[in-house]
Amino acid sequence: MLSKDILAKMKIQSMIDQYPFIVSFLKDNQLDIAGYEEETWYHFLSSMSEQTKEEQTIDTDNLMEASVAYINEMLRFLGLDEESTVQSLTIIAGKDKDGRSEGFDRIKINKSEIVSIVGPTGSGKSRLLADIEWTASKDTPTDRAILINDQTPDKKWRYSTGNKLVAQLSQNMNFVMDLSVQEFLELHAQSRLVENEKETIQRIIEAANKLAGESFDLDTPITSLSGGQSRALMIADTAILSTSPIVLIDEIENAGIDRKKALNLLVSSDKIVLMATHDPILALMADKRIVIKNGGINKVIETNEEERRMLTELEKVDRMMQNLRNHLRLGEQLKLNLLDRNL
Ligand SMILES: Nc1ncnc2c1ncn2[C@@H]1O[C@H](COP(=O)(O)OP(=O)(O)O)[C@@H](O)[C@H]1O
Ligand SMILES: [Mg+2]
């Protein structure tokens, strides 16, 4: 909760930057802040009340109280207050496929962290993501429990549709609805109460086309999108429309999209990102990686300096491969000089 003391000392410009909706409070109360942007809120209010002392229309204390209440209420309404924001996610150990306890007590992942999940096919990577999505409380085959902000999460998260805890990009994305890309995005935008719908939809399709090899447009029926295109669409949609504080990604590498761009688009500074992957570049882009073996979390490895240095080299190799792929697609004869990593 924002306190009166803090708000009183805040400069008007930073108050507007942090709480843009305060502009309508200013308008409602006919407060003209022009020229006062660098003054503190309290100073502005008291100087205003000096000026209008005769009319007694502005009361510093009342307005101070009212503005704090207004901001706190808006923050709650928008789901931006501390209780609604996710600061951390904790995995409490469960059991592997043989019923043996996982070799740790709990793993805490903080806001802004990227964690990759690695392990052989069938080892339980998607299962771990599903536990998080369901905010498991010893009610899944793994017996794991998930805490949000160190507490057992409210079950409202499981069933809410608008304000979801988790945005999930799953391995298989099959559309059955008979909708165009435009209609599909309109539905999403409306369900998320987006204001400038047209502009947002345009941003999504542009972002999606930057990720997918072959481009598509708003009239394309979603059922005729290729695997890569629908994946690109879902990633752009999640990145731009979703307000979920946790993003789960299940093996985006096989979808024929630019996965580094995809990850950069999805990762915003205040989210928690978990991704199951076999891709060294994606795995090393994470801060740490969870290693899964036989259904259980076997260990957690921090991405170290050596690995980070490798990442730069791997990205060069990746660009080279990408380049080769493009030449192949265009039906060209490949040339040895295309193996130059510094192209
Ligand atoms: N700890 C566990 N206990 C029981 N079953 C598990 C456990 N972990 C995974 N499984 C099951 O094993 C199967 C393969 O797991 P999955 O998560 O799909 O593997 P991956 O995504 O790594 O290929 C799934 O049916 C899953 O429910
Ligand atoms: Mg899987």
The structural domain count equals 3
CATH superfamily of the largest domain: P-loop containing nucleotide triphosphate hydrolases
Structural class based on helices, strands and sheet pairing:
alpha/beta
Global morphology: globular
CATH topology of the largest domain: Rossmann fold
Cofactors, ions, other ligands: adenosine-5'-diphosphate, magnesium ion
- Let me know the largest β-sheet: 6 strands, mixed
- Rg on CA atoms, Å: 25 Å
The low-confidence runs, each spanning 5 or more residues with pLDDT under 50, are none
Strand content: 5-15%
Give me the CATH architecture of the largest domain, please: 3-Layer(aba) Sandwich
| Total beta strand runs | 9
The termini sit apart by 52 Å
Mean pLDDT value: 87
Side by side, the strands of the main sheet go 5-6-7-3-8-9
Number of helical elements: 13
CATH class of the largest domain: Alpha Beta
Task: Label this structure with key terms.
343 residues; alpha/beta; Rossmann fold; 3 domains; 6-stranded mixed sheet; 3-stranded antiparallel sheet; 13 helices; globular; binds adenosine-5'-diphosphate; binds magnesium ion
Describe this structure in words.
- With 343 residues, this protein is of the alpha/beta class.
- It folds into 3 domains: 4-77, no CATH class; 88-303, P-loop containing nucleotide triphosphate hydrolases (Rossmann fold), CATH 3.40.50.300; 314-343, no CATH class.
- Helices cover 41% and strands 13% of the residues.
- It has helices at 4-8, 12-18, 22-28, 41-51, 60-77, 125-133, 156-159, 181-191, 197-211, 227-241, 259-266, 280-285, 305-329, and strands at residues 88-92, 106-110, 114-118, 145-148, 166-169, 246-250, 272-276, 288-293, 296-302.
- A 6-stranded mixed β-sheet has the order 5-6-7-3-8-9, with helices on both faces.
- Helix 8 (181-191) packs across helix 9 and helix 9 (197-211) crosses helix 10.
- It is globular.
- The protein binds adenosine-5'-diphosphate and magnesium ion.
- Adenosine-5'-diphosphate is lined by residues 95-97, 119, 121-127, 141-142, 276, 295-296.
